[in-house]
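Dig into this one:

. . .
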Amino acid sequence: MTSEILLIDDEKDIRFAVHEILNENNFFVREADTVEKALSEIKKKLPDLVILDVLLDEKKRDGIHILKFIKSLDADLPVIMISGHANIQIAVDSIKHGAFEFLEKPFNKDRLLNFVNRALENSSLKKENKSLKKNLYLSNELIGNSSTLVKLRNSIEKFSKTDSRILIFGPAGSGKELVGRLIHEASSRSNNSFKVVNGAILDPNHFDFELFGSENNDKIISGIFEKSNNGTLLIDNISDVPLQTQGKILRVLSDQKFHRVNGANEISVNIRVMCSTSKNLKEEIVSGNFREDLFHRINVIPIQTPYLKDVKEDIPLLVDYFIKRISDTNGLKPISINSKNAVFYDYDWPGNVRELRNLIERVVILASGKNEDVDKILSESLKISSVRENKTEDAFQFPLKEAREKFEKNYLEIQLNRHNGNVSKTADYIGMERSALHRKLKSLGIN
């Protein structure tokens, strides 16, 4: 797959020269010549690599300002800083704020390509390690013996034998992606790819490139539909896809055909599409946020994942499972956690199984093995339950939409405080994409 590079420099000659070098080596290049345009391109879609000049068209917002903004969105995105007015302090500041390398102008072709290839290779390894770690926490089966889990496993076995579209609905952190993955692995498509695209972070101004890919000077970049050909595609958070995007997805589901951006030829695909949501789509239709025709297209077979609070009898099995997986992954000696501890059952688990997993990971890593340390970490981590319960009664005096916003604002403020204002750690803990959390915080007026 062709890597996408965003080149930010206010000098036309530099942009032309660097663009030519990168194009000759099969990189797809986007350009920005001002701070405002650079920020717009970054918000539109994060590239695989950024080449960023230190001095741009604004004095107050320079390349370091943009570097900090990029790192707030994705700490692992590699940025190569360049400058024709370099000094040691600028280089130190660049590396200090997360730049992969600092390159002084003028630079030769080989040096530039060396930095670019190393940066992309380093980024790829980080993504691969994160993916491997994440997959280590995934089970090949749903953990639990409750009647609800037994019924869910039976549904997976039954519906994996068909090629029908499936809508998986349930609360955040309840394992919707795992259900989709298990259905794929038990299906006739199991030897082909299983792809996931998150509807909550599809940019309505740039989604064509994400979904359908593009053609540029005979260079082809495949989109998610093309990458999923002959396999399974799970559209997560389908409820958060903008209406204009929903219409274009509907056409692909109907015809299984599309054009790449700037492409002349029609691309045919054979994909099993599954969708997931934590919202009530019928309510979203009434509110005008979701297309009814798309709902009927995707809701052929509905499957529901449960709240953890409704299957608390499965908690001991889940605790034991996560202790083993997390200990093995981190090379730690398994600790003993009393899974019958009252704190597990007095808590409502708003983050569901994902929240339980994160809690067990925290305990395994922080606890020294002494029971009092385990109990202390458990009790301190679940203090939020009492805060949430105190706010519940007040919420009943407001309409549903306002009550939901008040709860979300209170919940996110508490989580941000617990993670010292670190948005990335908060997003990981509560199970949201970082960009989606940024938008949610902005909409709720949380700084």
User: Anything to note?
Assistant: The chain has three domains: 4-133, 147-306, 309-443. The chain has a mean pLDDT of 85.
